[in-house]
From TrEMBL:
A single MF term (Gene Ontology): ATP binding
Coiled coil: 127-154
Xref: InterPro entries: AAA+_ATPase, AAA_lid_NorR, CheY-like_superfamily, Homeodomain-like_sf, HTH_Fis, P-loop_NTPase, Sig_transdc_resp-reg_receiver, Sigma_54_int
Organism of derivation: Thalassomonas actiniarum
Protein name stated in the entry: Sigma-54-dependent Fis family transcriptional regulator
Length: 466
């Protein structure tokens, strides 16, 4: 079987070109030849070339090898990943050393034995593959660092609605299916995307997110597919696109509902072909990604309104997961409150608690900004508090505090405990411990909260060895 990849042979002698081609095409998929070194630049732009066999003298009678050095430098500047082997009829050891110092991988003297040429080309090829691998890894690592530096929270929930979400995530994560996450802003779509990635067999590879909503139209292709240096005025360096960064891993495209028609078509083509072409390059790059998309819009409606391509919707929503708004799962509010109170207590070096009355307020409020708003409200409350308790009234809208209340949300309170036992003695012991913790060891207050006299409380402390 022939090895994948391409070799370019550049020599002004047509007999040599024919001889090398006949030999190498038995082993390599693509062997290109040219007698004109001015073709090199164009050929390198048009396709991926791993190895170049380069003559050192192109003018008749030239023997210094200077031309070979000139073209060698040009090639290395244009594509540092290409491996160059220099050839000359007038070999001498000094030239060989100089060529290698100038960046050639090897040097071969004409006339050569076929086995010798084959050996040198095979070594150059494996060197080229290594270079490509290192290049790709370096570029992925840059993207990874960026992705990892984002602070991520735990993805929590104990309501039945969230249990369904977790179950679907677990099932879908094992497959390579494209997943569409829907739900209002702040319901946790990005956290869900992370959770899917971490539960998948792509978790050792990058998770790369891109917010399409904040992407300037002119940067769309460059951000997604990358660009070559000089492709447009601001392209000062080569840039790796998000598709390529996510190779082997997960690409998360957030807020993709408002893409203009042209960009929808471009995105669809990349997803269908599993290939991208950086701006300013003619070479395509194969990409292996799992796509997770997110939107807070109703995409089927957008299709009916002719704002979103139906074929793109079918491509991205193999599995659809809806993140329910927080007001549909108030059972999650106590758990989330406890988590964020802990988190911000640590962050701001405080030890604040929340009163049952304030927890009730949180459970009654409708949270239009969902969990993000809850987390921000708790952070503000921690920052503003002067006492040992957070003051929720100071951070949620005044009219929300005046709502006729259920007493502390019963659903919330009940679901905050998952019963692994109904043994009353064990439950009582846990309640006593929890009350003590809540009142920071103050026995009188804990007894009052439990509806016990101080005497009854002390008997229980003794019985449970607390
Ligand atoms: N289930 C959850 N558990 C813990 N925190 C959560 C949860 N859901 C959301 N959050 C919090 O809310 C914030 C917003 O979540 P996320 O960015 O995932 O929402 P989103 O649905 O992607 O929002 P948008 O549509 O605005 O991009 C997170 O940073 C996190 O603090």
């Amino acid at each position: 079987m022939k090895q994948e990849g391409a070799i370019l042979v550049v020599d002004d002698n047509p007999d040599i070109l024919i001889a090398v081609k006949l030999l190498l095409k038995q082993y390599y998929q693509t062997v290109i030849t040219t007698d004109n070194p001015f073709d090199i630049e164009k050929l390198l732009k048009e396709q991926q070339i791993e190895v170049i066999l380069l003559d050192m003298n192109f003018n008749h009678d030239a023997i210094s090898g200077q031309e070979g050095f000139y073209w060698l430098k040009k090639i290395i500047t244009q594509d540092p990943a290409v491996v160059v082997v220099l050839m000359t009829a007038y070999s001498d050891i000094t030239l060989a050393v100089e060529a290698i110092k100038a960046g050639a991988a090897d040097f071969i003297a004409k006339p050569w034995k076929n086995e010798q040429l084959q050996g040198v080309v095979a070594a150059a090829f494996s060197h080229a593959k290594d270079k490509q691998r290192v290049n790709k890894l370096t570029r992925q690592a840059q993207g990874l660092n960026q992705a990892l530096s984002n602070q991520k929270f735990e993805f929590l929930g104990q309501s039945p609605a969230m249990q369904t979400v977790f179950d679907t995530i677990e099932k879908a994560a094992q497959t390579d299916a494209n997943i569409l996450l829907t739900g209002e802003s702040g319901t946790g779509k990005e956290l869900a995307a992370h959770a899917i990635h971490m539960a998948s067999n792509r978790s050792a590879h990058p998770f790369i997110g891109l917010d399409m909503g904040s992407l300037a139209e002119s940067l769309f292709e460059s951000e997604l597919f990358g660009h070559k240096k000089g492709a447009f005025t601001d392209a000062k360096e080569d840039r790796v696109g998000h598709f390529e960064l996510a190779h082997g891993g997960t690409l998360f495209l957030d807020e993709l509902a408002n893409l203009p028609a042209q960009q929808q078509a471009t995105l669809l083509a990349a997803l269908q072909n599993r290939q991208v072409t950086p701006v300013g390059s003619a070479k395509t790059i194969d990409v292996d990604i799992r796509l997770i998309s997110a939107t807070n819009e109703n995409l089927p409606q957008a299709v009916l309104d002719n704002r979103f391509r139906q074929d793109l919707l079918y491509r991205i929503n193999t599995v659809e997961i809806r993140l329910p708004p927080l007001r549909e799962r108030i059972e999650d509010i106590p758990l989330l409150t406890e988590y964020y109170l802990d988190y911000f207590n640590q962050k701001y070096k405080r030890a604040l608690s929340i009163t049952p009355g304030d927890l009730e307020l949180l459970c009654r409020y409708s949270w239009p900004g969902n969990v993000r708003e809850l987390a921000h409200s708790i952070e503000r409350a921690v920052i503003l508090s002067d006492s040992e308790y957070v003051d929720i009234r100071a951070v949620i809208p005044a009219d929300a505090c005046e709502l006729p209340g259920r007493q502390i949300s019963e659903a919330a309170a009940e679901n905050n405990h998952s019963y692994d036992t109904f043994d009353l003695e064990i439950l009582e012991q846990r309640a006593v411990r929890a009350a003590l913790k809540f009142h920071q060891g103050n026995v009188t207050q804990a007894a009052k909260a439990l509806g016990l006299t101080r005497g009854a409380m002390y008997r229980r402390l003794e019985r449970y060895d607390l």
